[in-house]
Amino acid sequence: MRRLMYEAQRALASPVRNPRMATVIGRLLGAAFLLCFGTGLYSHFLQQPLPGMHFATRPAYLYQFTQGTHIVAGIACFPLLLAKLYIVFPALFAWPPVKSFANFLERTSIALFVGISLVQIVIGLLNTYQWYPWPFPFRQVHFALGWVLIGLLVIHIGVKLPLITRYWRKAPDASEPEHLSEAASPDRSRNLEEVRLWGSSRPGGITGRLLDYIDATPATPSRVSRRGFLTTVAVGVTAVVGLTAGQTFTPLDATNVFAPRKKGLGPQGVPVNRTSTQAKVAEVAMDAGWALTVVYAGTEHRFTRAQLLAMEQTEVRLPIACVEGWSQMATWRGVRLMDLADTVGADAGTSFRLISLEERGSFSKTQMGHEYVRDPLTLVALELNGDTLHLEHGYPARMIAPGRPGVLQTKWLSRIEAIDA
Protein backbone atom coordinates (compact mmCIF):
# COMPACT_ATOMS: atom_id res chain seq x y z
CA MET A 1 0.00 0.00 0.00
CA ARG A 2 2.87 2.39 0.77
CA ARG A 3 4.28 1.91 -2.73
CA LEU A 4 0.84 2.40 -4.31
CA MET A 5 0.37 5.61 -2.37
CA TYR A 6 3.79 6.73 -3.57
CA GLU A 7 2.79 6.08 -7.16
CA ALA A 8 -0.43 8.06 -6.68
CA GLN A 9 1.63 11.00 -5.44
CA ARG A 10 4.06 10.62 -8.33
CA ALA A 11 1.18 10.72 -10.80
CA LEU A 12 -0.19 13.88 -9.16
CA ALA A 13 3.13 15.70 -9.00
CA SER A 14 3.02 19.16 -10.58
CA PRO A 15 5.08 22.37 -10.56
CA VAL A 16 2.19 24.10 -8.77
CA ARG A 17 1.90 21.51 -6.01
CA ASN A 18 4.61 22.79 -3.70
CA PRO A 19 4.83 24.55 -0.32
CA ARG A 20 5.50 27.95 -1.87
CA MET A 21 2.30 27.87 -3.96
CA ALA A 22 0.31 26.58 -0.99
CA THR A 23 1.59 29.54 1.03
CA VAL A 24 0.77 32.08 -1.70
CA ILE A 25 -2.82 30.87 -2.14
CA GLY A 26 -3.20 30.22 1.58
CA ARG A 27 -2.44 33.78 2.59
CA LEU A 28 -4.96 35.11 0.03
CA LEU A 29 -7.58 32.70 1.34
CA GLY A 30 -6.74 33.60 4.94
CA ALA A 31 -7.12 37.31 4.16
CA ALA A 32 -10.54 36.65 2.59
CA PHE A 33 -11.65 34.66 5.65
CA LEU A 34 -10.51 37.42 8.01
CA LEU A 35 -12.33 40.07 5.96
CA CYS A 36 -15.49 37.98 6.09
CA PHE A 37 -15.12 37.45 9.82
CA GLY A 38 -14.51 41.09 10.68
CA THR A 39 -17.29 42.51 8.53
CA GLY A 40 -19.60 39.70 9.63
CA LEU A 41 -19.06 40.56 13.29
CA TYR A 42 -19.85 44.20 12.56
CA SER A 43 -23.10 43.24 10.82
CA HIS A 44 -24.07 40.84 13.61
CA PHE A 45 -23.61 43.36 16.42
CA LEU A 46 -25.43 46.06 14.47
CA GLN A 47 -28.42 43.73 14.41
CA GLN A 48 -27.95 42.32 17.91
CA PRO A 49 -25.92 44.87 19.90
CA LEU A 50 -24.51 44.04 23.30
CA PRO A 51 -25.40 46.36 26.20
CA GLY A 52 -23.53 49.64 25.94
CA MET A 53 -22.62 49.25 22.28
CA HIS A 54 -22.77 52.36 20.08
CA PHE A 55 -22.02 52.65 16.38
CA ALA A 56 -20.76 55.24 13.93
CA THR A 57 -23.37 56.91 11.74
CA ARG A 58 -20.81 58.29 9.31
CA PRO A 59 -19.98 57.78 6.57
CA ALA A 60 -23.60 57.20 5.61
CA TYR A 61 -22.57 54.38 3.25
CA LEU A 62 -20.55 52.56 5.94
CA TYR A 63 -22.74 49.45 6.10
CA GLN A 64 -23.11 49.43 2.33
CA PHE A 65 -19.30 49.18 2.12
CA THR A 66 -18.71 46.69 4.95
CA GLN A 67 -21.47 44.27 3.96
CA GLY A 68 -20.62 44.56 0.28
CA THR A 69 -17.04 43.68 1.17
CA HIS A 70 -18.30 40.76 3.27
CA ILE A 71 -20.19 39.24 0.35
CA VAL A 72 -17.45 39.93 -2.21
CA ALA A 73 -14.79 38.34 0.00
CA GLY A 74 -17.04 35.34 0.63
CA ILE A 75 -17.59 34.81 -3.10
CA ALA A 76 -13.84 35.13 -3.75
CA CYS A 77 -13.29 32.26 -1.28
CA PHE A 78 -14.74 29.76 -3.76
CA PRO A 79 -11.95 29.80 -6.37
CA LEU A 80 -9.29 30.40 -3.71
CA LEU A 81 -10.39 27.42 -1.61
CA LEU A 82 -10.62 25.16 -4.66
CA ALA A 83 -7.13 26.26 -5.72
CA LYS A 84 -5.72 25.49 -2.27
CA LEU A 85 -7.35 22.04 -2.29
CA TYR A 86 -5.90 21.35 -5.73
CA ILE A 87 -2.40 22.18 -4.48
CA VAL A 88 -2.50 20.00 -1.37
CA PHE A 89 -4.50 17.12 -2.87
CA PRO A 90 -1.47 14.73 -3.09
CA ALA A 91 -1.11 14.93 0.70
CA LEU A 92 -4.23 12.74 0.93
CA PHE A 93 -2.08 9.84 -0.26
CA ALA A 94 0.55 10.12 2.46
CA TRP A 95 1.50 6.78 4.01
CA PRO A 96 0.97 5.93 6.74
CA PRO A 97 -2.16 8.10 6.89
CA VAL A 98 -1.48 8.87 10.55
CA LYS A 99 2.08 8.94 11.88
CA SER A 100 1.37 9.94 15.47
CA PHE A 101 -1.33 11.28 17.74
CA ALA A 102 -0.19 14.82 17.01
CA ASN A 103 -0.39 14.10 13.30
CA PHE A 104 -3.89 12.69 13.80
CA LEU A 105 -4.99 15.91 15.50
CA GLU A 106 -3.41 17.96 12.72
CA ARG A 107 -5.14 16.05 9.92
CA THR A 108 -8.44 16.05 11.79
CA SER A 109 -8.31 19.82 12.28
CA ILE A 110 -7.55 20.28 8.57
CA ALA A 111 -10.48 18.05 7.59
CA LEU A 112 -12.79 20.05 9.86
CA PHE A 113 -11.39 23.32 8.54
CA VAL A 114 -12.02 22.34 4.93
CA GLY A 115 -15.49 20.94 5.64
CA ILE A 116 -16.67 23.93 7.68
CA SER A 117 -15.18 26.35 5.13
CA LEU A 118 -17.20 24.75 2.35
CA VAL A 119 -20.40 24.75 4.43
CA GLN A 120 -19.89 28.36 5.51
CA ILE A 121 -19.34 29.85 2.06
CA VAL A 122 -22.09 27.74 0.45
CA ILE A 123 -24.80 28.70 2.95
CA GLY A 124 -23.59 32.29 2.80
CA LEU A 125 -24.00 32.31 -0.97
CA LEU A 126 -27.46 30.74 -0.79
CA ASN A 127 -28.47 33.35 1.77
CA THR A 128 -27.82 36.08 -0.81
CA TYR A 129 -30.57 34.41 -2.87
CA GLN A 130 -32.76 34.01 0.23
CA TRP A 131 -32.93 30.25 -0.38
CA TYR A 132 -32.70 28.10 2.75
CA PRO A 133 -32.85 24.37 1.93
CA TRP A 134 -31.84 23.34 5.46
CA PRO A 135 -33.67 22.91 8.78
CA PHE A 136 -31.48 25.20 10.93
CA PRO A 137 -31.65 29.00 11.41
CA PHE A 138 -29.15 30.62 9.07
CA ARG A 139 -28.05 33.67 11.09
CA GLN A 140 -27.27 31.80 14.29
CA VAL A 141 -25.47 28.91 12.56
CA HIS A 142 -23.51 31.21 10.22
CA PHE A 143 -22.37 33.29 13.20
CA ALA A 144 -21.32 30.23 15.25
CA LEU A 145 -19.50 28.61 12.33
CA GLY A 146 -17.61 31.86 11.77
CA TRP A 147 -16.03 31.56 15.22
CA VAL A 148 -15.27 27.87 14.74
CA LEU A 149 -13.72 28.55 11.35
CA ILE A 150 -11.46 31.31 12.64
CA GLY A 151 -10.40 29.08 15.55
CA LEU A 152 -9.46 26.28 13.16
CA LEU A 153 -7.65 28.79 10.94
CA VAL A 154 -5.53 29.88 13.91
CA ILE A 155 -4.73 26.24 14.74
CA HIS A 156 -3.85 25.50 11.11
CA ILE A 157 -1.54 28.51 10.89
CA GLY A 158 0.09 27.53 14.18
CA VAL A 159 0.77 23.99 12.99
CA LYS A 160 2.08 25.09 9.60
CA LEU A 161 3.91 28.19 10.83
CA PRO A 162 7.45 26.81 10.20
CA LEU A 163 6.49 25.95 6.62
CA ILE A 164 4.66 29.26 6.11
CA THR A 165 7.64 31.23 7.47
CA ARG A 166 10.04 29.35 5.21
CA TYR A 167 8.05 29.90 2.03
CA TRP A 168 6.38 33.27 2.70
CA ARG A 169 8.74 35.03 0.28
CA LYS A 170 10.90 32.20 -1.01
CA ALA A 171 10.29 30.39 -4.30
CA PRO A 172 10.86 26.60 -4.23
CA ASP A 173 14.34 25.39 -5.13
CA ALA A 174 14.74 23.20 -8.18
CA SER A 175 16.14 20.49 -5.93
CA GLU A 176 12.98 20.34 -3.82
CA PRO A 177 10.17 17.90 -4.65
CA GLU A 178 7.34 19.45 -6.62
CA HIS A 179 4.66 18.02 -4.35
CA LEU A 180 3.87 18.52 -0.72
CA SER A 181 4.17 15.03 0.69
CA GLU A 182 7.33 13.88 2.41
CA ALA A 183 6.25 10.28 2.00
CA ALA A 184 7.08 10.05 -1.70
CA SER A 185 10.64 8.87 -2.07
CA PRO A 186 12.57 10.01 -5.17
CA ASP A 187 14.11 6.55 -5.50
CA ARG A 188 11.33 5.06 -7.60
CA SER A 189 13.24 1.99 -8.79
CA ARG A 190 14.02 0.86 -5.24
CA ASN A 191 10.41 1.42 -4.15
CA LEU A 192 9.00 -0.56 -7.03
CA GLU A 193 11.46 -3.39 -6.48
CA GLU A 194 10.28 -3.68 -2.88
CA VAL A 195 6.69 -3.91 -4.05
CA ARG A 196 7.63 -6.45 -6.75
CA LEU A 197 9.36 -8.71 -4.24
CA TRP A 198 6.38 -8.44 -1.88
CA GLY A 199 3.93 -9.22 -4.67
CA SER A 200 5.91 -12.08 -6.19
CA SER A 201 4.63 -14.44 -3.53
CA ARG A 202 1.07 -13.76 -4.74
CA PRO A 203 1.06 -14.73 -8.45
CA GLY A 204 -1.83 -13.26 -10.33
CA GLY A 205 -2.78 -11.06 -7.38
CA ILE A 206 -3.97 -7.47 -7.58
CA THR A 207 -0.51 -6.23 -6.61
CA GLY A 208 1.07 -7.88 -9.62
CA ARG A 209 -1.50 -6.42 -11.97
CA LEU A 210 -1.04 -2.94 -10.47
CA LEU A 211 2.74 -3.27 -10.93
CA ASP A 212 2.27 -4.26 -14.56
CA TYR A 213 0.11 -1.19 -15.07
CA ILE A 214 2.60 1.10 -13.29
CA ASP A 215 5.52 -0.26 -15.34
CA ALA A 216 3.55 0.23 -18.56
CA THR A 217 2.57 3.82 -17.66
CA PRO A 218 5.43 6.28 -18.14
CA ALA A 219 5.59 9.31 -15.88
CA THR A 220 4.48 12.36 -17.86
CA PRO A 221 5.36 15.89 -16.87
CA SER A 222 2.50 18.13 -15.76
CA ARG A 223 1.21 20.58 -18.32
CA VAL A 224 0.13 23.03 -15.58
CA SER A 225 2.73 25.78 -15.10
CA ARG A 226 2.92 28.01 -12.07
CA ARG A 227 2.17 31.09 -14.16
CA GLY A 228 -0.76 29.37 -15.88
CA PHE A 229 -2.17 28.20 -12.55
CA LEU A 230 -1.96 31.62 -10.94
CA THR A 231 -3.50 33.20 -14.03
CA THR A 232 -6.39 30.73 -13.86
CA VAL A 233 -6.97 31.49 -10.17
CA ALA A 234 -6.84 35.25 -10.83
CA VAL A 235 -9.31 34.94 -13.71
CA GLY A 236 -11.61 32.83 -11.54
CA VAL A 237 -11.61 35.32 -8.67
CA THR A 238 -12.08 38.26 -11.05
CA ALA A 239 -14.98 36.51 -12.78
CA VAL A 240 -16.98 35.52 -9.69
CA VAL A 241 -16.43 38.94 -8.08
CA GLY A 242 -16.88 41.01 -11.22
CA LEU A 243 -20.12 39.28 -12.21
CA THR A 244 -21.78 39.79 -8.79
CA ALA A 245 -20.25 42.80 -7.01
CA GLY A 246 -22.29 45.24 -9.10
CA GLN A 247 -25.26 44.66 -6.77
CA THR A 248 -23.31 46.75 -4.22
CA PHE A 249 -20.63 48.71 -6.04
CA THR A 250 -22.14 50.99 -8.69
CA PRO A 251 -19.13 51.06 -11.08
CA LEU A 252 -19.59 47.28 -11.59
CA ASP A 253 -23.34 47.45 -12.15
CA ALA A 254 -22.98 46.81 -15.90
CA THR A 255 -21.27 43.47 -15.25
CA ASN A 256 -23.73 42.32 -12.57
CA VAL A 257 -24.94 39.11 -14.24
CA PHE A 258 -25.41 36.55 -11.48
CA ALA A 259 -26.23 38.53 -8.34
CA PRO A 260 -29.83 38.16 -7.08
CA ARG A 261 -30.47 41.94 -7.13
CA LYS A 262 -29.96 44.52 -9.87
CA LYS A 263 -29.74 48.24 -9.17
CA GLY A 264 -32.73 50.23 -10.37
CA LEU A 265 -35.08 47.25 -10.63
CA GLY A 266 -38.09 47.41 -8.33
CA PRO A 267 -40.88 49.80 -7.31
CA GLN A 268 -39.68 53.41 -7.54
CA GLY A 269 -36.35 52.17 -8.88
CA VAL A 270 -35.32 50.36 -5.68
CA PRO A 271 -35.19 46.55 -5.19
CA VAL A 272 -37.38 44.91 -2.55
CA ASN A 273 -36.44 42.07 -0.22
CA ARG A 274 -39.59 41.48 1.82
CA THR A 275 -42.92 42.27 0.20
CA SER A 276 -46.14 43.43 1.83
CA THR A 277 -47.69 40.08 0.88
CA GLN A 278 -44.96 38.15 2.67
CA ALA A 279 -45.33 40.42 5.69
CA LYS A 280 -49.15 40.21 5.54
CA VAL A 281 -49.58 43.95 6.04
CA ALA A 282 -51.19 45.14 2.80
CA GLU A 283 -54.68 45.66 4.22
CA VAL A 284 -53.71 47.31 7.50
CA ALA A 285 -51.04 49.49 5.87
CA MET A 286 -53.58 50.96 3.45
CA ASP A 287 -56.10 51.68 6.21
CA ALA A 288 -57.07 55.36 6.16
CA GLY A 289 -57.13 55.36 9.97
CA TRP A 290 -53.41 54.61 10.28
CA ALA A 291 -51.44 56.79 12.70
CA LEU A 292 -47.88 56.60 13.99
CA THR A 293 -47.75 56.30 17.77
CA VAL A 294 -44.70 57.75 19.54
CA VAL A 295 -44.38 56.76 23.21
CA TYR A 296 -42.22 58.60 25.73
CA ALA A 297 -42.39 58.65 29.53
CA GLY A 298 -45.58 56.60 29.47
CA THR A 299 -47.41 59.09 27.24
CA GLU A 300 -48.62 58.18 23.76
CA HIS A 301 -48.60 60.76 20.97
CA ARG A 302 -50.39 59.92 17.71
CA PHE A 303 -49.46 61.40 14.34
CA THR A 304 -51.60 60.81 11.28
CA ARG A 305 -49.91 60.76 7.90
CA ALA A 306 -51.42 64.19 7.14
CA GLN A 307 -49.95 65.58 10.37
CA LEU A 308 -46.54 64.13 9.54
CA LEU A 309 -46.70 65.69 6.07
CA ALA A 310 -47.59 69.04 7.64
CA MET A 311 -44.38 69.01 9.72
CA GLU A 312 -41.06 70.28 8.37
CA GLN A 313 -39.89 67.88 5.65
CA THR A 314 -36.24 66.94 5.11
CA GLU A 315 -34.74 65.33 2.01
CA VAL A 316 -31.68 63.05 2.23
CA ARG A 317 -29.70 60.73 -0.02
CA LEU A 318 -29.15 57.41 1.73
CA PRO A 319 -28.63 53.84 0.58
CA ILE A 320 -30.66 50.80 1.42
CA ALA A 321 -27.96 48.21 2.18
CA CYS A 322 -29.10 44.68 2.95
CA VAL A 323 -27.31 41.81 4.65
CA GLU A 324 -27.55 39.80 1.42
CA GLY A 325 -25.00 42.19 -0.07
CA TRP A 326 -27.09 44.34 -2.41
CA SER A 327 -27.57 48.06 -1.96
CA GLN A 328 -29.25 50.97 -3.71
CA MET A 329 -28.81 54.71 -3.24
CA ALA A 330 -32.11 56.63 -3.12
CA THR A 331 -33.63 60.00 -2.25
CA TRP A 332 -35.86 59.98 0.82
CA ARG A 333 -38.13 62.71 2.18
CA GLY A 334 -39.87 62.86 5.51
CA VAL A 335 -39.73 64.02 9.13
CA ARG A 336 -36.44 63.91 11.02
CA LEU A 337 -36.70 61.49 13.92
CA MET A 338 -34.92 63.96 16.18
CA ASP A 339 -37.73 66.45 15.50
CA LEU A 340 -40.34 63.87 16.49
CA ALA A 341 -38.32 63.07 19.60
CA ASP A 342 -38.20 66.76 20.52
CA THR A 343 -41.94 67.08 19.90
CA VAL A 344 -42.70 64.43 22.53
CA GLY A 345 -40.07 65.83 24.94
CA ALA A 346 -37.48 63.04 24.66
CA ASP A 347 -34.00 63.90 25.89
CA ALA A 348 -30.84 63.58 23.80
CA GLY A 349 -29.83 60.21 25.26
CA THR A 350 -33.11 58.43 24.47
CA SER A 351 -33.01 55.26 22.37
CA PHE A 352 -36.12 53.94 20.66
CA ARG A 353 -37.80 50.66 19.81
CA LEU A 354 -39.28 50.58 16.30
CA ILE A 355 -42.38 48.44 15.80
CA SER A 356 -43.78 47.47 12.41
CA LEU A 357 -47.33 46.69 11.39
CA GLU A 358 -45.91 43.26 10.57
CA GLU A 359 -46.87 41.08 13.51
CA ARG A 360 -44.37 38.31 12.89
CA GLY A 361 -40.83 38.30 11.61
CA SER A 362 -37.34 38.46 13.07
CA PHE A 363 -37.17 42.22 12.58
CA SER A 364 -40.76 43.30 13.15
CA LYS A 365 -39.34 44.99 16.27
CA THR A 366 -35.91 46.61 16.21
CA GLN A 367 -33.91 48.96 18.40
CA MET A 368 -32.27 52.24 17.44
CA GLY A 369 -29.54 53.75 19.60
CA HIS A 370 -29.57 57.44 20.47
CA GLU A 371 -26.66 58.06 18.07
CA TYR A 372 -29.02 57.28 15.18
CA VAL A 373 -32.03 59.01 16.74
CA ARG A 374 -30.10 62.28 16.96
CA ASP A 375 -28.51 62.05 13.52
CA PRO A 376 -30.07 64.68 11.21
CA LEU A 377 -30.13 62.16 8.34
CA THR A 378 -32.44 59.76 10.20
CA LEU A 379 -35.99 60.13 8.89
CA VAL A 380 -39.46 58.79 9.26
CA ALA A 381 -39.65 58.57 5.46
CA LEU A 382 -42.92 59.38 3.68
CA GLU A 383 -41.61 59.73 0.11
CA LEU A 384 -39.09 57.89 -2.05
CA ASN A 385 -37.43 59.26 -5.18
CA GLY A 386 -39.91 62.13 -5.45
CA ASP A 387 -43.12 60.09 -5.06
CA THR A 388 -45.31 58.88 -2.23
CA LEU A 389 -43.67 55.91 -0.55
CA HIS A 390 -44.70 52.70 -2.32
CA LEU A 391 -46.44 50.01 -0.27
CA GLU A 392 -43.57 47.60 -0.97
CA HIS A 393 -41.13 50.13 0.46
CA GLY A 394 -43.05 50.63 3.69
CA TYR A 395 -46.08 52.88 3.10
CA PRO A 396 -47.47 54.68 5.03
CA ALA A 397 -44.10 55.39 6.72
CA ARG A 398 -40.77 53.71 7.22
CA MET A 399 -37.49 54.39 8.97
CA ILE A 400 -34.32 55.31 7.09
CA ALA A 401 -31.02 56.04 8.84
CA PRO A 402 -27.34 56.24 7.83
CA GLY A 403 -25.12 53.19 8.24
CA ARG A 404 -27.86 50.71 9.22
CA PRO A 405 -28.65 47.28 7.69
CA GLY A 406 -31.78 47.16 5.57
CA VAL A 407 -33.49 44.81 8.03
CA LEU A 408 -33.27 47.58 10.65
CA GLN A 409 -34.76 50.23 8.33
CA THR A 410 -38.20 49.27 9.60
CA LYS A 411 -41.00 49.33 7.04
CA TRP A 412 -44.73 49.84 7.71
CA LEU A 413 -44.05 51.74 10.93
CA SER A 414 -46.69 51.47 13.63
CA ARG A 415 -45.08 52.58 16.93
CA ILE A 416 -41.88 54.24 18.14
CA GLU A 417 -41.31 53.61 21.86
CA ALA A 418 -38.66 55.12 24.09
CA ILE A 419 -36.45 52.50 25.73
CA ASP A 420 -35.83 52.97 29.43
CA ALA A 421 -32.13 53.52 30.13
From TrEMBL:
UniProt keyword annotations, A-Z? Membrane, Transmembrane, Transmembrane helix
Provide an example Pfam family for this protein. Oxidored_molyb
Does this UniProt record's set of keywords contain Protein biosynthesis? no
Q: Which InterPro entries match?
A: Di-haem_cyt_TM, Mopterin_OxRdtase_euk, OxRdtase_Mopterin-bd_dom, OxRdtase_Mopterin-bd_sf
Parts of the chain that traverse the membrane? 21-45, 71-98, 110-132, 144-163
- Any single Gene Ontology cellular-component annotation: membrane
Annotated Oxidoreductase molybdopterin-binding domain residues: 287-420
SUPFAM superfamilies found in the cross-reference section: Oxidoreductase molybdopterin-binding domain, Transmembrane di-heme cytochromes
Gene Ontology MF annotations: oxidoreductase activity
Extract one GO BP annotation from the record.
Answer: respiratory electron transport chain
Q: Tell me yes or no: is Amino-acid biosynthesis among this UniProt entry's keywords.
A: no
Q: What is this protein called?
A: Molybdopterin-binding protein
| Natural source organism | Cryobacterium psychrophilum
